Amino acid sequence: MRYLITPALLIFGTVLAAPAIAQSGKKSPSGAAPVEAPECGRFPGGDVVCSCPAGGVDRSVWGVGPYTGDSDVCTAARHAGVIGADGGVVSLSERPGQSGYEGSTANGVTTSSWGSYGQSFAFASAGGASTLEATGLPRCTKMPAGADRYSCACPADAPLGSVWGNGPYTADSDICTAALHLAYIDAEGGDVHVLRVQGLSSYFGAESNGVTSSGWGAFVSSTTFHWNR
């Protein structure tokens, strides 16, 4: 037996269903549906917004920003200072793979060095585009192993690291500190372009531009800066 559904019944059914539909998609006081970022997992590529839990366990990370694409996102976010122990939402984007990644300790997190990797990611700073986001260059640390040319970005008021030599510098010298010593950049930071050159039998330290470098003996290779930029 077939039943005839009249327009009146359709209207009545719609009225009854409306409260259930409304309750299933609750709105915030502003009228917009609240959006919760998914928990961060392995970096999938592209642009990602995800959340890190409070008290997260440190896991493997390679690099100092950008990080290798297989690094743990939340641990890397703590290393970069994007979040603290309380966790939070992070925004990150895919970056090109690098020929080498240097490890460092920052914000209580130690990352490891690595060689070439085909994919990287980097974070957007909480206050807007960071130097890394604005230029697309990785943050400077030391000359990557195996690289003959390297471009990277020094942040404003970067902390001073160890430097040996007076130009050229030992290849394991901190790039930003050496760039300050040579007046290639000032305290406002900027992009630097580094070249690997032949090692010297000895390096002499000097004080220049508010930075004091140290002396050293023989070293396998040196770094200098490309001025025709």
Automatic annotation (TrEMBL):
InterPro entries: CRISP-LCCL_domain, LCCL, LCCL_sf. PROSITE patterns: LCCL. Residues 60-121, 148-223 form the LCCL domain. Keywords: Signal. SUPFAM superfamilies: LCCL domain. It comes from the Bacteria. Residues 1-17 form the signal peptide. Pfam families: LCCL. This is LCCL domain-containing protein. It comes from Candidatus Rhodobacter oscarellae.
